[in-house]
Amino acid sequence: MNSKKMPPLRIGDLETRIPIIQGGMGVGVSLSGLASAVANAGGIGVIATAGIGMFEIDFFKNVNAANRSALRKEILKARKMTKGILGVNIMVALSDFDNLVDASVDCGIDIIFMGAGIPSYNPKVKPLDPSRKVFPKLVPIVSSGRVTKMIFQYWERHFEYIPDAVVLEGPMAGGHLGYKWENIEDPAFRLENLLPEVIAEVEPFRKKYGKDIPVIAGGGIYTGKDIYEIMKKGAAGVQMATRFVATEECDAAPEFKDMYIKCKKEDIMLIHSPVGLPGRAVRNAFLNDVEAGLKKPFKCPWKCLRTCEYQNVPYCIALALTNAKLGKLENGFAFTGANAYRIDRIMKVQELVDSLEKEYSEAAG
Prior knowledge:
This protein is of the alpha/beta class. It folds into two domains: 10-252 and 343-364, TIM Barrel (Alpha-Beta Barrel); 255-331, no CATH class. Helix content is 35%, strand content 15%. It has helices spanning 32-40, 63-81, 97-106, 145-159, 191-209, 224-232, 242-245, 254-262, 285-291, 317-325, 349-364, and strands spanning 10-11, 14-15, 20-22, 44-48, 85-91, 111-115, 137-142, 166-169, 175-176, 215-218, 237-240, 268-272, 278-282. The strands form three sheets. It has an eight-stranded parallel beta sheet with strand order 3-11-10-8-7-6-5-4. Strands 9-13-12 form a three-stranded antiparallel beta sheet, with no helix packed on it. Helix 2 links the parallel strand 4 and strand 5. The radius of gyration is 19 Å and the shape is globular. The N and C termini lie close together (11 Å). 50% of the residues are buried.
């Protein structure tokens, strides 16, 4: 941390130029366009798999096949656009988690980020192709030291293999949050307070296996100074999602990006998601209707998340997020991190990365 330049991030034999992972944003917000641009800028670009098949014409005929086909197309498309490091974000709670993991391995993805649950499936133990010699790095997304320990112990016991890195996602992140409602605003659960306990839980496994296991921090990281400060506290890198929405290369519609630019601090709200988790989003007419108790009629196209009791929810979150990605915000809403209100314009990914590097250097200096 003595250098004024951002250090690289190393995960096994992979090494980035800058220690930035672009967070996965589902239902079409981060696909090949954004992921390849971040990878080209020296970070890790991430394709989100949640709802990825909903834009396929045969989605309602065969959901799993549509998801698999869409994911393969996005990975291969990104590969043509970059020689950098690419990852996928796969929620453990997705009904076809195994299917999406297999498709990612089959396409030779570099890293699989696994969130929203404890991953009980490991492609290195049950590979799609037993002759394959190269597998992606496996990185769970965690919310605490306790969850970190549970995952490492489970993998050690069942797979005789431990994760290659860990992403700690704090309560200022966007989308679904892995915290109880009352803990989201609790200072004890701030990212900088959670980081030491996660590092402490990883350390025994690092020593036992002689393996470097970087801990990456995300949720509320906005400036280069933020990156410097959290890395000074022990993080090996950062995960950022909200900042990358307001870029030309982001795969969402212009109307979606405009919500970020136009929103004020008081527009950022916490919601009760139909899948049983708290979430953070930008307030709009759709969410006002839901908050007022109005039900948005729908027919569940696919029980995409195992935890969703679709018979009893006021709206389908997959359809709402799909509409938002397409710019149809009268029938949907945008998930966001806590700092979206600070964004004031659209820029290219490289311009954003340049500004973060400059801010980092100034903080380090």
